[in-house]
Amino acid sequence: MVKATDRNYLADEQYRDAANLNARIALHQRFGTGEVPWHRWVFEQMDLPPQARVLELGCGPGQLWIQNRDRLPGGWAVTLSDLSGGMVEQARRNLADSAPLFSCVQCGAQALPFADSRFDAVIANHMLYHVPDRPRTYAEVRRVLAPGGRLYAATNGRDSMAELKALERALGIAGAADFTASPDFFDLERGEAELAAWFPHVELRRQEEELRVAEAEPLIAYVRSMGDGAAFTAEQLNRLRAQVEAEIRDKGAFRIGKVTGLFIAG
Ligand SMILES: C[S@@+](CC[C@H](N)C(=O)[O-])C[C@H]1O[C@@H](n2cnc3c(N)ncnc32)[C@H](O)[C@@H]1O
Question: Which atom of ligand 1 is nearest to the CA of 56?
Fold first, then answer.
């Protein structure tokens, strides 16, 4: 099975806890040049009334809510869910001081333990590419959405982080390039047609920015976070570090183009 959709690998290794994801988020947060941070931007795209029932699939440690806590309407009831028990536990701890607004549930996105028409919005932020049978998830999302409800599904463009993928490929590292290589990978290019088969209206809002990485170590941590022990050798990582450091010395930064976006479907 492709690693990106292998439930055991995802729940027990890659997302056993938030460490790998945090390493990737840290790179974006430290070196992103966009005006609005990603999780703040996603929140701003959601058009919901002061009273709303919201479900997040694949919530991770709850970054969407941590980063928007200051503007969360008090009338929202948010259910956070994730395949990984470790992630659900982390999200619960991270949001403990706003507990009445949030509930946390461990579940995969292919079988949702919720009644029909239970939510006004479902969010799937950078997680649909991990779901082996996406049609099952789309059927489930439609079932749990109330009439007029919407799915907010975010992912990357095919060429996102191309400079990093090219460097990894040149060095034989099985990193981001391998993770996204499957022809079935849920990316911005594939998503619109796929969602249109399930939802009458689909809109894509894109967000492009550049990472200007001015220190090698956070990038090495990012690369490490994508692979297990078999994905690279210490020597490959040293060569990667040397190339990135040389580029930072010569040009001030290792620049990486980033293409992300959000589908709004309903
Ligand atoms: C890239 S992280 C995104 C986390 C969070 N949405 C964010 O944007 O910060 C993907 C998350 O999806 C979860 N996940 C993977 N496969 C899943 C599935 N089939 N059902 C539900 N969650 C899943 C992982 O455990 C992980 O927490």
Answer: 6
